[in-house]
Amino acid sequence: MKHIQNIDYAMREFDAITREGEELVATHCAFCGMQCGMNIRFKPDTKEVLGVEPRYDFPMNGGRLCPKGVSAYRQVEHEERLLYPMIRRNGKLERATWDEALDLVASKMREIQLQHGKDAFGIYSGSSMTNEKCYVMGKFARIGLGTKNIDYNGRYCMAAAATGFKQSLGMDRGSTNPWSDIKFADVLLIAGSNTAECHPLSMPYVWGARDRGAKLIVVDPRETKTALVADLHLDLRPGTDIALVNGIIHVMIRDNLVDHAFIEAHTNGYEALKETVAEFTPYHAEMITGVDQRKIEQAAHMFGKAREGMVMFARGIEQHATGSDNVSNYVNLSLLTGKIGRKGSGVATFTGQGNGQGGREHGQKADQLPGYRVITDPAARAHVAKVWGVDESEIPGPGISAYEMLKSLGQDIKGLLLICSNPLVSAPSIGDIEERMRSLDFFVCIDMFLSESAELADVVLPSTVWVEDNGTTTNIEGRVIRIKGIDRTPGESKRDWEIIGEIAKRLGRGQYFDYGSPEDIFNELREASRGGVADYYGITYDKIDRMDGVFWPCPSLEHEGTPRLFEDLKFKFPDGKAKLHGFTHTGPNEKVDKDYPFILTTGRVVYHYLSGNQTRRIEALRKLCPDPYIEIHPNTAAQLHIKNGEFLKISSRRGYITVPAKITKIIRPDSLFVPYHWGKQLGINRLTNPALDPKSKIPEFKVCAVQIEKAGEEDIKHAQSALY
Amino acid sequence: MPKVLYIDFERCIGCRACVIGCEECSGHDHLSRMFVDELTPGETVATSPTPCMHCYTPLCAESCPVQAIQVMDGVVLSASHEKCIGCKNCTYACPFGIPRVDEAKKLMYKCDMCYDRTSKGRPPMCVSVCPTDTIQYVDEEVVKLKNSKPVQYQWQFGATEIETRTVIGLPDLAGHKYGYYDAEESDPYVGQT
């Protein structure tokens, strides 16, 4: 029997097929925050991984998978797996023993910290790891190394949503509602999310709503597949979300489509917001956004008049220098119309990374301790210090954010431990960042493949892939689920938490990291998070199995979790009221001019995950999207006499790359799009703008000013040498 | 009641999970038998999957000189390993261009509706993985007679009419319920209330 929390989901009534001589392990996908359920087929004797079998009974996806999910297992037996530790000798990475490598790492850590202070060694972590590993990284930084400088790649991903939710609702859980609620909305407003490509398994819910007659409004500069099937596509100029939403709010207030009783009882700040949007008439909004004012009117009516509605968004609105405020302005739409805290009404961000939710809750963020606690809060410090068995004074204060850390490499930060991330693809302005990484005194990287970043390391430590370890992740909805692994460690590879334990031992801090299993770590995490915002105390491995996942907060062993937040309309501020914030349009940090006349925006394709370190190696995915390209509108292409497939050199103030043109009407004539999954001379992040949102420190990946020209022979040759 | 494939291509997101998923069925030797085509390249991102249409009178089987292509329970199977000579007659005969030939093995392969799965009461792999339920495995009579949107399963190729078990859902051009809604051509104006 399915638990009652799961009855409205997309599961199907079939059993998986177990083939003769094989076993299945019921786990979840390695990619994206959907964390779709899947079975991995393996040989019980040799532990060889053979393939994938649908997990029809898992609520979220009912066995359905995107192409990444189908082929995720193909990284396991991959020939490019790192199988032994490597140390750089005479400029080359050479095979070493674990003892040699770990001793070197520990001695360099000691040496650098002794010479330059504790904070001179930084940790750059990732959010595609289990909660257990993310927790261990935060703990290792604070009381293993004793450095304040730890941050993680979620800073590029979820930071603006988190900050925006906190400033509007008082707390951040990526979705206020369980995903099955989407089906019960009468209107869906999806902004800056190419849901169809980036979260394909959300589509059964979007279609579920559509099947019930829901209207779909999509805000996106491109006519993505999600936009193509929308009732209303608001094709805004990149970087103008504030003005667009102000226009919609203006119409909703003008036409009395707001819920005054809700605003009065459950929010603060309405009058100031009203004043802010007064000047944003539909005409004014059209002038800034390029969206036909009639569509702005229609969006306001479509959303305002609906009974239930959800506002959902992703990196398209978040990766801006005003990212947190963009988020809060979209949340305003829900608050103004009282669409929150009910089945079919709420707000959500589409979590990009596999554990983008859990990874930002348990202390690997620069300013945070487990349970979503704030590192400067004395009570939080005291609680966590007690769980860790240390004195409160041993826990350092807040460190600096991911991009700021990369900028400090070689200066304040002399040594770096990189785990579960590939910033030389995923950071903005990677030409500059590469130089910084090369200037480090010491750089150790833990990974299962030799990423573009790992190639620069002094020591590379081989870890396992996701299905070779146990643990939990927290999905897009805030549902904590179990990743179940097969007991195998190819070659000499070790699990991340075991590697960290080994390093801690060599630093004389082994007693704090002496875990027997991921479940040991989880049980400590439960205590550490107890009483915090993200309270996992009542979640156990058994309960997760029994309920197909448990939604946090879950404060006691009897508690069955919290699928839907704010049902009591008590927001997490002292007076229980949500905050309406008004924002005025400032536009992107970098504006187009005569030298750089086009807007560049970047994003993902369905075949690749983040920096592509895994998916670019999987042949089936690589064949479907081997190389980056630049989407350019036919009118723009005609003006510049560019033919389809012709190589273009695209440059910003920070760098350039050369890629083939893909002429398509799905992009605005004033904008260009390049997917970001590649590095080196194909990395579009050579061009992107590292301007940070002052509140969340997320970089402005989504807008920068560029110019394009036909590529010369040298540039084409250079690009071609890297094309697949 | 026999089950057939139903393609509601307005839901297709072009992700090709079906193409890769097809490789995962036990009878498929890791060779995909699925196709996904762009419908209006350069104009929109609209796509559609094409599995075997499973004709009532399969021209592939009729054209096979060695009778390697069998029909079982209405499913046109892949060519028999023993009999197939890799001549490609079937590829040329098929009006939908479905059968492919493995040049190395000199062996035709095509969609067999995952006979290994459907014979055990499970949906084919493409249906199992499709994120959007674009490809469905449904009762033939229900989908052909009582579907909520118009369907097509009879096809005219010159003078020849072909009836297929696979059913294609046609876009709802009147209501624009899903997809292919051209906001440019519509008048979205909503007056003040």
TrEMBL record, chain A:
Keyword terms of this UniProt record: 4Fe-4S, Iron, Iron-sulfur, Metal-binding, Oxidoreductase
Domain 4Fe-4S Mo/W bis-MGD-type: 22-80
Molecular functions (GO terms): 4 iron, 4 sulfur cluster binding; formate dehydrogenase (NAD+) activity; metal ion binding; molybdopterin cofactor binding; NADH dehydrogenase activity
Enzyme class: oxidoreductase
EC number: 1.7.99.4
Source domain of life: Bacteria
Gene3D superfamilies xref list: 2.40.40.20, 3.40.50.740, ADC-like domains, Dimethylsulfoxide Reductase, domain 2
The keyword Oxidoreductase is annotated on this UniProt entry: yes
GO cellular-component term (any): membrane
The protein's required cofactors: [2Fe-2S] cluster; Mo-bis(molybdopterin guanine dinucleotide); [4Fe-4S] cluster
Family annotation (InterPro entries): Asp_de-COase-like_dom_sf, Formate_DH_asu, MoPterin_dinucl-bd_dom, Mopterin_OxRdtase, Mopterin_OxRdtase_4Fe-4S_dom, Prok_molybdopt-oxidoreductase
Gene Ontology biological process terms in this record: formate metabolic process; respiratory electron transport chain
Pfam families, sorted: Molybdop_Fe4S4 (PF04879), Molybdopterin (PF00384), Molydop_binding (PF01568)
Protein name (database record): Assimilatory nitrate reductase catalytic subunit
Organism: Paenibacillus phyllosphaerae
From TrEMBL, chain B:
Ranges of residues in domain 4Fe-4S ferredoxin-type: 3-22, 43-74, 75-104
Pfam families xref list: Fer4_11, Fer4_4
Gene3D superfamilies: 3.30.70.20
Gene Ontology MF terms: 4 iron, 4 sulfur cluster binding; metal ion binding
InterPro entries linked to this entry: 4Fe4S_Fe-S-bd, 4Fe4S_Fe_S_CS, ET_IronSulfur_Cluster-Binding
Keyword Iron-sulfur among UniProt keywords: yes
Keyword Repeat found: yes
Keyword annotations of the record: 4Fe-4S, Electron transport, Iron, Iron-sulfur, Metal-binding, Repeat, Transport
Protein name (Swiss-Prot/TrEMBL): Fe-S-cluster-containing dehydrogenase component
